[in-house]
Structure formats: structure tokens, C-alpha cells
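Q: How would the C-alpha cells look for this protein?
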Amino acid sequence: MEIKTIALFGKPLFNLVTMTQPIKMATAMPEDEAGFVYILQGRCTNYSETEELRLKANQAVLAKCGNSTFSTLTINGKTEYKAIAIKFHKDVLEKLYHNVTSPFSTRTWHKLSVNSTLVETNELLRNYIIGLISYFEHPELVSEDLLKLKLNELILLLIHTANAPEVIGIMTNLYEKKTFEFKEIIDAHIYSSLGIEELAQLNNQSLSTFKKTFKRIYNDTPNNYLIRKRIEKVAELLPVSNESITNIAYQCEFKTLAHMSRVFKAQYGISPSEYRLNFSDKG
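A: Here is the predicted structure in C-alpha cell form.
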């Protein structure tokens, strides 16, 4: 992973990130930070407490302080990911708007329901990002005044995007962390590709504490519970979906058809194909 950084007031502001290897990592932000990430190349998935956002080139995400996990996606056996990540530091914004009113502080307050949102990009935002690339090629020409102008410009562009209500909801509450209940986070990610360690991280818990909390709430282990819920989803989809059994298995986050079939037969006493056939015979 290669990261080129341009700082403002001693804090990283613009970051050009390049990855050529698959990676999955925690990307939690502290309570005095938020960020905007614009994908230049490749695909990735961003998991927050209750959101799973799949992003490709020319899409973007705005995220505030909170827990999250980031994963690149491999396409045709290759990982070619490049993005510009822009940090909103609380003290940097306080200095930027020390003597003036910030653009988002005059906006109507929106109830905060998520810690991240997909940003609908437009031509102005795309041109803004393209213009930033040259800054990394000639950082010696970038002044503090120019960086302040560019940061303010980005904020103005963001609050005028197509999904402005969600964006403004985050921008007006940048450093107020939205808290989520344990069950909210688990229910949101039953069918995601997150492992037990990532679910613990989203709950801001150690793995051992997470397992104890899970057992207390669900009276089961995380693995048993998730597999049971996923196999129930398979059983729900088999009679009504036109997808192949293999695709249904993958949709429900089983890594192989063989594993799903083995679990399915253990729970329902017959194979997935027999289960589907029973419903088609009744029809």
C-alpha cells in the first residue's frame, strides 16, 4: 500500500492511496475525525456499524467518527485500487472557519441515523478530484491558503450533491458519534462477508468480550447463530428465487456449495435440491 499525503495545519488533509494487493482492515475514525473517500480505480467494500457500501470507480463515501472495516475487491485476479481520501479534522475546521460561519452550520439539522453514506457524485465533484491529482505531483507548489480554499470548496460541493439530506445529516453532526446497539450491528451484517473479528471491532469490543456478549444476548456462539440464520435464508430463497442453488449459497455468504449443502441437510434432513423440488411439485 502506498500513501501520498498533503497536510494542512500539521494534519493529513489530502491522501492519495494506491493498493495492488488484496487487503481487509479496520478503518475506525476517532471522535475528532471524519472523512471523504473518492474511488479513482478499482472496487472496494466499506462496512460501518449498520451499512455495507460497495464502491467502484467514480463513486464516493462520506463517513464520520465511528467503527468501520474496509476491503478491496479483486477483479480478474488483480487488485488495482486507487482513491483520494480527504480528512476532516475538528481542529482544522475550527481554524478554517474561525472568523466566518461554516457552510454546513447554517443548514437545517437532520436526525443522524448512520455513520456513513454513499455520495452521489456529479461533474463538478469529479472535476474537483481530478484537479487534486496534480497537487500530489507538485506538492511544493501547494500553499496553505490554497489548501484552505480547496477544503472549503469540497464542503460546498458535498452539501449540494443529489443526496444532500444524508450528506448534511453527517456534516452537521461530524463529530457526534452515532451509537448502535449490539443487536443492530449483528442484524445488519448477518449476510455480509465480515468475520467474527470484524464484527467485534464494529462493536468496539475485544474478541473475547464480543463472544461473551453474544452468548448472553443470543444464547449461542457467533458462528452457530450466523450459520443458522444464513441457512434459514437459503431455505427461504429456494422456493421463490430463479437463481441457481450455487448462487443462492454465495448470496447467503457460504464460501462453497458443499458447505452449504452439508449444513442444509443437517438442519432440514434433505438436500437443497430436494427441498426446492418439493415446492415445485406442490406448485
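The chain has two domains: 2-171, 182-282.

Residues 160 and 167 are 9 Å apart (CA to CA).

Upvote if useful.
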